[in-house]
């Protein structure tokens, strides 16, 4: 499965990069395949391991912020691995035509 999620601290002002970095650090330390862009972090793995990382990423922000917003979107497709790369490669193939 692939989960795209964003964790946003609330009540800490406009500059939230330091808090978001705490969440991304948890994802990177997980060892699971992942990508971070300006809006979301995507992570790939089995249900329990991915959801555990999301939970720990939220907890890292929650430890420093009075309130946390979580947005999550999941692609649950058993048997598919390397979806983070293969889905993008498929689109790039079509764009190259």
TrEMBL record:
Similarity comment: family membership: Belongs to the UPF0045 family.
Organism: Streptomyces rubradiris
Signal peptide: none
InterPro entries named in the record: MTH1187/YkoF-like (IPR029756), Thiamine_BP (IPR002767), UPF0045_domain (IPR051614)
Domain Thiamine-binding protein: 3-92
Protein's UniProt name: UPF0045 protein
Pfam families membership: Thiamine_BP (PF01910)
């Amino acid at each position: 499965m692939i989960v795209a999620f964003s964790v946003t601290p609330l009540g800490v002002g406009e500059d939230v990069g330091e808090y978001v970095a705490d969440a991304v650090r948890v994802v990177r330390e997980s060892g699971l395949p992942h990508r971070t862009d300006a809006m979301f972090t995507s992570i790939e793995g089995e249900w329990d391991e991915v959801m555990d990382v999301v939970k720990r990423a939220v907890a890292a922000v929650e430890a420093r912020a009075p309130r946390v917003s979580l947005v999550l979107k999941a692609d649950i497709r058993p048997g598919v691995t390397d979806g983070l790369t293969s889905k993008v490669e498929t689109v790039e193939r079509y764009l190259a035509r």
